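[Discussion] Sanity-checking designs against the backbone

I'm trying to build intuition for which residues belong where. Below is a structure token string of 293 positions. I'd appreciate it if someone posts a full sequence so I can compare it with mine line by line.
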């Protein structure tokens, strides 16, 4: 098998594949054997029709079957041979087939070349998390108003399943602390991601953007439906929604590709848990600095 790779742009390659000899010839023989066994030709028992009659009646079908059986395997073999990191399915064109040779072109999208920055030892600023009395009071007042009570006391705390008001206050204080901790963690992670990807300039593969855009669009439609919008009106807004969501789709794909590149260097499996594992690695390797209160 002969292969040739032509670079179209940073994310697209044209792969020309050609094979001659027994590979094609033997495949035609296998296909015609199957046709002979299955074809119903007047005057002949299955498997006994002369080859010339089979050729006359099933030549086009045989060629289609040869292409269907040969192209996928040859394509995969060529991709492995050339070491291409292919995204999605190929566009097959310029197919040429005769009884002893097959040639075709596969146009594919590939992962872009990403020149990573130094992603270890990144500086991370964090604040000591505290819950001040005013925050606790606001949450208690909100709880009181939601229940239409005149006062917060031990009786109210017991009605909520707590032994006394002090214990209820501890639980609410803990909830506030966890929420603030989660918000700070999210902010830190966004900052880390921005540091490793923000200045990187590379073309984002269109197929990945399209796939992510469809997922964001689906989620947006579900959200609108849950808010009570009619299906027809949602569909009317599809074009506008796509235009609005496309930048976010590109951003998300860019971040994923950067995280995937780090994962490859760190031997982290490219599965559904990859983004979280990479972010945890970056946080572990970061230089943490507490901000003054």
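Best answer:
Here's mine. Compare freely.
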């Amino acid at each position: 098998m002969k292969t040739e790779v032509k670079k179209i742009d940073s994310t697209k390659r044209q792969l020309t594949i050609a094979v001659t000899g027994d590979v094609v010839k033997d495949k035609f023989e296998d296909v015609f054997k199957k046709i002979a066994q299955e074809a119903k030709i007047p005057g002949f028992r299955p498997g006994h029709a002369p080859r010339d009659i089979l050729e006359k009646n099933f030549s086009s079908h045989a060629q289609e079957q040869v292409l269907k059986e040969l192209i996928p395997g040859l394509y995969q073999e060529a991709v492995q041979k050339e070491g291409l990191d292919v995204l999605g399915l190929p566009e097959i064109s310029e197919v040429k087939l005769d009884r002893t040779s097959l040639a075709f072109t596969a146009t594919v999208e590939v992962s872009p070349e990403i020149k990573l920055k130094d992603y270890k030892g990144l500086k991370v600023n964090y604040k000591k998390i505290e819950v001040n009395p005013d925050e606790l009071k606001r949450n208690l007042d909100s709880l009181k108003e939601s229940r239409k009570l005149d006062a917060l006391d031990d009786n109210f705390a017991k009605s909520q399943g707590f032994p006394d008001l002090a214990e209820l206050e501890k639980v609410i204080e803990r909830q506030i602390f966890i929420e603030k901790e989660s918000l700070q963690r999210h902010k830190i992670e966004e900052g880390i991601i921005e540091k490793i990807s923000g200045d990187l300039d590379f073309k984002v593969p269109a197929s990945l953007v399209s796939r992510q855009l469809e997922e964001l669009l689906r989620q947006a439609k579900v959200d609108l439906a849950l808010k009570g919008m009619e299906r027809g009106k949602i569909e009317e807004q599809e074009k506008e929604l796509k235009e609005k969501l496309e930048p976010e789709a590109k951003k998300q794909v860019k971040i994923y590709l950067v995280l995937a590149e780090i994962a490859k260097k760190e031997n982290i499996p490219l599965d559904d848990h990859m983004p979280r594992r990479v972010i945890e690695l970056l946080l572990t390797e970061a230089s943490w600095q507490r901000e003054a209160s």
